[in-house]
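User: My collaborator sent over this chain with a note saying "see what the structure looks like." That's all I know about it. Can you take a look?
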Amino acid sequence: MTITQLSTFLKIAELGSFSAAADSLGYAQSTVTTQIKQLEEELGCVLFERLGKTISLSSAGERLIPYAEKMFQIERDIRLDVTGEDDPAGVLKLGVSESLCINRAPRILMEFNKKHPRMEIRIQFVTHEVIPELLQKGELDMVYTINPLIEDERTRNLYKKRESLGFYVSPDHPLAGKCIREKDLRDVPLLLTGHNCSFRHMLVSDLEKNGITPDIMLETSSKETLKQFAAGGFGIAFIPDLTAETETENGKLIRLRWKGNDFPVYSQVIIHKDKHRNKAIDGLVEIIKRGC
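Assistant: Without extra context I'll predict from the sequence alone. Here is the result:
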């Protein structure tokens, strides 16, 4: 069997279609069909049940998936780490929280690119609930995120730093300059991140525990949009402090003094627990540590 065959097998399993996998991989459908046929002949089993135009993984196919994912990841690790030179070359797939891309991640990646010009970094925005699965599948090599601590048996934390969340308003907002707690947010328009964001869950849960139904005026994954609405006087934005540094410096936003419950979040670097720490990963982690 070959890495190419296993890669094709994983893509078919992901998309549930030979033709969709062929389009995604840039192959003719006949090439994909031949690759799977050869793999099935070598293993002596059927990997996909073919029911008319519908396919599904067989029991043997289900068992092959974790092995194929490991093989595919090992192949990528070899290309990154086994080289006669100190400077790594290849592709590093990095998952990043959108919050970190406003100012911190670009600086870090620019420094990494200068130090390792032969490395290509492919960036994907991620939310906390999909991180362990994406690392396990090998779709990401590492994740740089800001979230509550991610503690999953499938992952390993290489670095963490305590960060903070804040409530931001325009300078002429009625609450500007005041100390607030949960009761002060009753019937106050809130500008929050989306349903799949841990920041939103933390605040909404805290308010509900205090008997307050949040008045959510806007929900969006874009921190830039939340800041613009807050600066326009439309409500209170609840966002990571690191995303509002520029606006607080130029006076467009004011951070309220919060006296309520704590919202512990951390910037974190996470890899799969079985992931080999190659030169590229260690190099990027070191730059993140210095840049934070």
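A starting point for your reply to your collaborator: The domain at 87-163+266-291 is CATH 3.40.190.10 (D-Maltodextrin-Binding Protein; domain 2).
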